[in-house]
Design brief:
InterPro entries: YabQ (IPR019074). By secondary structure, the protein is mainly alpha-helical. About 95% of the residues lie in helices and about 0% in strands. The protein has four helices and no strands.
């Protein structure tokens, strides 16, 4: 391995160490906060570290065809240490500001979607529902009056005609029977009221 290749590998591993520090803090800040299940946290951690290993190895493969030397591991640790001492505070401040901007933008978009899309749709649907209810109610009233005119009034007139055609004694007999039925009904009602007390 030439000196140039060794220097490129060294700088690449320092950059990889800085990248690992950045990605660990990003992962802790964003994903681990929202995962409650311990098994899922463990699974996410395994997937995260496997991805980091694959990315670092891909970088090493791209720079020096995958030759791993001890000083490259030290260079990676140097990159992580540089990130921890020099860049971590500024990066976390920037990350928190970016996340708060994203959350604010999401809230604004959600409110805009609610005001501009969902509420008008609900309003239009309620107006359509009110119009349909009004039409159905009007049709129902019209049908009720038509049925009353077509069926109930002729039956009532027919019964009144039959009542008038009955002899007077028969009508008086029906009136007496109706009176007895009413008095029997009143007696039963009073008895039920007394039993309830």
């Amino acid at each position: 391995m030439t000196i140039t290749l060794q220097m490129a590998s060294l700088l690449a591993m320092v950059a990889a160490g800085i990248w690992v520090g950045l990605s660990v803090d990003t992962y802790k800040r964003i994903w681990r906060h929202y995962i409650r299940n311990m098994w899922m946290k463990g699974l996410h951690d395994i997937i995260f570290w496997v991805l980091q290993g694959v990315l670092v190895f891909f970088l090493l493969w791209h720079v020096n065809y995958g030759e791993l030397r001890f000083y490259l591991l030290l260079a990676m640790l140097l990159g992580v240490s540089m990130y921890q001492t020099l860049l971590k505070r500024a990066y976390l401040t920037m990350l928190n500001a970016l996340l708060s901007c994203i959350l604010t933008l999401v809230r604004i978009l959600r409110q805009a979607c609610l005001l501009l899309i969902i509420r008008p749709i609900v309003w239009v649907a309620s107006v359509i529902w009110a119009i349909i209810a009004f039409i159905v109610g009007g049709i129902g009233k019209i049908l009720y009056h038509l049925l009353r005119i077509v069926f109930f009034l002729p039956i009532r007139w027919g019964l009144l005609l039959i009542w008038r055609l009955l002899p007077i004694k028969t009508r008086q007999h029906f009136v007496v029977v109706a009176g007895k039925c009413m008095s029997f009904k009143n007696t039963i009602t009073q008895l039920v009221k007394k039993l309830r007390k």
